[in-house]
Amino acid sequence: MTSKLKERARFNDYQTIIALTALFRLDDKSAPEQLMDMLRRQNGRNFYYLDERFQRLIALLPKSYTPELRVIAENMAYESVKEQMIELVEALEAAPDAAASERGSGVWEWIKNKMS
Q1: Exposed, middle or buried by CB within 10 Å (0-12, 13-18, 19+), for 57?
Q2: Which residues, 6+ apart, have CB-to-CB distance to 51 below 8 Å?
Q3: Which of 62, 64, 71 lies closest to 39, judged by CA?
């Protein structure tokens, strides 16, 4: 699955999001890096919106990725998407260490509560 994801990963593609979600749920060590690679390749372009599924994936990233996520967010072309991404990064930074080390819906629920 990881090799196909590396070849065909596209931002906001349903199959890509499902594959990444599966890798995160399986606690695959390459999942965070594959998500970050996809974000790096986009380089702020083509981000027209962040749907809830993609926001959940970002919420699953370890706290150590927040500095790079912030740089990616600052380079986004559309102001609304940039603001959404910065809110996600700030919520991830502010997450308690216990929540940041968890996998699954606990972190996402915490971030959703902070953003609302």
Answers
A1: buried
A2: 12
A3: 71
* Contact (CB, 8 A) for 23 and 1: yes
Tokens of 20: 């990444």
Per-domain boundaries in the chain: 2-115
Query: DSSP states of 57-93 as a string?
Result: HHHTS-GGGHHHHHHHHHT-SSHHHHHHHHHHHHHHH
Structure tokens at 10: 């596209």
- Structure tokens given for 29: 């060590």
Q: pLDDT tens across 16-68, in order?
A: 888 889 999 998 899 999 999 888 887 666 777 788 888 889 989 998 999 99
